Amino acid sequence: MTLRRRLVIALACLALVLATEAVLTFQLNRAVERDVVETLGNALVASDGAVERALALAWVQAQTQELVTESYRRAYLGSAPSQDDDLNVASAGLTRGFDRLEASLAIQGVGEPVNDADTLQRDLRREFEALRGLTDHLLALAPLRPEEAHAHLDERIEPQVNHRLGPLIENRRLETERVLRERARRIAHRTQSSARLVIVINLITILLALGVVLSLLRSTGKRVEQLVEAAAAVGQGRLDTRIAITSHDDLGFLASTINQMAEDLARTTVSRSDLHNILESMPDALLILNAQLEVTRANEAALELLGYEPTELHGRAFPQLVSAAALAGPAMADLPPGQRLVTEAHLSSRDERETVAMVSVSALRTPSGSPDRYVCVAHDITERMKAEVRLRTLLADKDTLLRELH
Question: What gap in Å lies between CA 344 and CA 347, rounded to an integer?
């Protein structure tokens, strides 16, 4: 699986989680909004019902008092009855009041009774019917016996309204408020739970996103680090370096390319270790000089010939080690490319022993043509020079002896 495909899959999973979160949040908000609207609507209905019941009961009470007052006025003022007199108006108003009161009992909101089996609703119905019966009796007494009607109002109707039906209506209102407060508390609790759930979903989404990103970064970063280390090792000459290929994505293809490059270089070039072994196995002394004719490298034969340690020889000036007029700085700097300067020279060793060597110097130049480094190879010819001296001595002695014999 390629790295691009992994990223696409990770982004698709993250988008799916975010979409799920959005849907859940929308559903939770809709549910809370629906509960709030329903509760507010029921609260308004219940409030209207409570107000309407209280107003209807007050209307009934006022009409009964008006009815008794009109009965007294007719009886003691001697007015003739007519179809539209105040007594008939009060009777009609009392009937309308009972119609309003009965209609208000049918208004239902949250927490309101839904059928006659409910205790509070049953009590209200019972007391309402009792009040209707008392007012019907009051209507019968008012035109003929106003004193009895007044006594009936004070002794029966007023207690029925103030002590029986009124408290029941008030209890109904209080029960409605209690149910509404309980519903509001549940809505608040559900809203808090929904908010906590949304927070949890957000945290899970963030953790999943971080997990995916960290997993990709960790796996990709580790593999990239391996590629960088392998490339650096190949650049340093360790051509046996290989990278384990664990996938066939872009990084796997790059690892395969680096492995192939190392194999090709191993077949076509000499590694630094091989070059080091070659230089150290040379019987002749080898010195590498910089442009300032300072020693930057020496093989084992040079260290043994000159008697120095590697740290002592590094940075030492070449003229301090080799004494030869042909090897002066200007002569070496003017050395043409591809040519060598070969001459006999005396070497200054650390133990001050006399050493004669055949020195060969060649220059390595930059692309601009200026000298960059020098390669100096010295072959020890001290013993050969001593043998030549002895041979010349023997030849001279031979000539002297022959002359004496003749």
Answer: 10
**Block residue for tokens 């007594």:** 87
Query: CA-to-CA distance for 91 and 84, rounded, in angstroms?
Result: 11
pLDDT in tens, 271-325: 566 777 777 888 888 888 888 888 998 988 888 888 888 888 888 888 888 887 6
SS3 86: helix
Mapping DSSP to helix (H, G, I), strand (E, B) and coil, where does residue 79 land?
coil
SS3 call for 54: helix
Distance CA 113, CA 81 (A): 44
**Pairing status of strand 354-365 against strand 371-380:** antiparallel
Q: Are 165 and 27 in contact (CB under 8 A)?
A: no
Tell me the DSSP string of 209-248: HHHHHHHHHHHHHHHHHHHHHHHHHHHTT-TT-------S
The CA-atom distances, in angstroms, between 382 and each of 58, 320, 346 are 143, 19, 9
Backbone φ and ψ for 375, nearest 5 degrees, come out as -110, 120
Token readout for 353 is: 């022993």
What's the predicted TM-score (pTM) here? 0.40
Provide the token pair at 147: 């004193």
